[in-house]
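Any chance you'd type out a single protein's sequence alongside its tokenized fold?
>
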Amino acid sequence: MTVPSIGARTNVTTAIATASQKTGIDFNYLLGQAQVESGMRADARARTSSATGLYQFIEQSWLGVIKDHGEKHGLGWAADSIRQTANGRFTVSDPATRQAILSLRNDPQAASLMAAEHASDNKDALEASLGREATGTDLYMAHFLGLGGARKFLRAMDADPTRGAASLFPAAARANRNIFYASDGSQRTLGQIYERFAGKLDRGAAAVGATGAASGSLDARFQTLVASLGEDVEVVLGNDAVGQDRGWLTTLDRLENAGRLKASTLPTVNPLRPTPETARLAYLMLAQMGA
């Protein structure tokens, strides 16, 4: 069977940029995810599962996203070949066609588009459920734990970021001990795991030339802290500063590198409930920036 290709030799970064443009999912997030998942290698394969390609899709997840989104990206032949059984499993009756569809995981353009579409689906669902904008780290939690698991994780973290994560996700903890437990065997908290994923995404994106934070966490944290200033924010920063001037990212990096600010020590806070602690921290940050 001759299978239409949508760019098997497309440059990986260009493919990711195209997927970002077509779906609206942040380029830095998609770049960071690809680096974390596969080291930007389109032919990457997992040793312990069926995960394959740039974004390490397992077979069932790949068939599902192709079924939902393939047609709009020129893969109608693939989407039409996939059936979903009563128990939710995706199947392809012709073995050669099934293999051809699964092989598309190694096509950077197909993989990037499907990863972006999958992230877009998760973004919409998380935002509807949580009542706030989803960050890149939120999307990666959905990639790691599944949508239902991410909802559970993020709601629990909003309620108590110091709660142990392994007790909430025992199966995931058994399969990913290095994520859920520290080297001394102690259980990591929900907040600690979230911040580790945020850092991992940002470092991955930076390693391959990203121009901003993949996790979205710095942006969300800063906006939360600024929001705690209330009406004073316009006096301190000016009417148009918040949400438009992203120069503070460079400032935060410079402060952290100088040892004057450690992003990892900033509290995980509920943006709907600013506290005196976050207000004081916001004033301190602004003072350090010379505002």
In short: Residues 1-10, 218-252, 260-284, 286-291 have pLDDT under 50 and may be disordered. The radius of gyration is 21 Å.
